[in-house]
């Protein structure tokens, strides 16, 4: 079963056709190979597979034809040499770091991280002898001063979850590479449609494919992208022995998601811009966070490294937790959820959900307060969403 020849395609075409492998049945849609093992024509072939002398499949914990199609397609989108599908976004984050870090190494990470990512770098890695330094991601001097000879990794997300602060990818990569460290970027909020960290110098990019790549709230998945030697050797060896494998069925769902991602993200970004502009004119909304607006403090950086402002919006309501809850509870189209990147517009109160494990002081330092609300913009009509938000504002 051979992959189709890669053409000089535009992105939308790539996301429909790249990496397709057709069986002898000539199916149009990619096949789902829901098998765990594989049959060999002879004992000699089995031996060659396990030695790595034959390119066929061995076990679906290692690789699977449907998963391979997803990996090839997302790698082509990202402009990466290779990719490895994972069981979830957090499996991608943890494996991307644990696969090459060891006791005695040092990692520098931005303070503004999703709660589980912060746990990985500040709690889990130190248990195994990897020291962590947290810095203000927007402050290049802090990144520079945190570097040590034993620094092996820098990790950050941009835009950040939930208040959409930015990290200068290119500048941080230059700092890291002076000491030979690898830069790992969580690109979930920007999506691969709007930001390409590898082209800006990053070594590794991670996604929760659960978000905009699936885009319809159907399944879990993650992916790690980077150089072929890192993906095929360092990461693959770690994964095949630890097992956070991507389900073939979920890989198939993600393949279907990639086919429509350009259309979905374009619509979400257009609506997000309209919503941010509307919220900025409301007296009961004290602050709006959207990189696509000129009042975002890092708007120039957003223009430099992002194709647009993105599909996420954050805001602060006048007041505190009670007012934020009244705002959220008054909505009907926006659904209360800690997820994001769905076809349905979602609303989150980060201080009591996604970032609740942080201390109040740590949340404040990250710009997350009881008045902070995060919006993930879906595919509904922009006017309907704005009408829904008006109900929430009236309840504040």
UniProtKB/TrEMBL annotation:
Gene3D superfamilies: Aspartate Aminotransferase, domain 1, Type I PLP-dependent aspartate aminotransferase-like (Major domain). It comes from Methyloligella solikamskensis. Its cofactor is pyridoxal 5'-phosphate. Catalyzes the formation of L-homocysteine from O-succinyl-L-homoserine (OSHS) and hydrogen sulfide. This is O-succinylhomoserine sulfhydrylase. InterPro entries: Cys/Met-Metab_PyrdxlP-dep_enz (IPR000277), O-succ-hSer_sulfhydrylase (IPR006234), PyrdxlP-dep_Trfase (IPR015424), PyrdxlP-dep_Trfase_major (IPR015421), PyrdxlP-dep_Trfase_small (IPR015422). The modification N6-(pyridoxal phosphate)lysine is found at residue 211. Belongs to the trans-sulfuration enzymes family. MetZ subfamily. One of its GO terms (molecular function) is lyase activity. Its EC number is 2.5.1.-. It catalyses: O-succinyl-L-homoserine + hydrogen sulfide = L-homocysteine + succinate. Homotetramer. Pathway: Amino-acid biosynthesis; L-methionine biosynthesis via de novo pathway; L-homocysteine from O-succinyl-L-homoserine: step 1/1. Pfam families: Cys_Met_Meta_PP. Keywords: Amino-acid biosynthesis, Lyase, Methionine biosynthesis, Pyridoxal phosphate, Transferase. The keyword Heme does not apply.
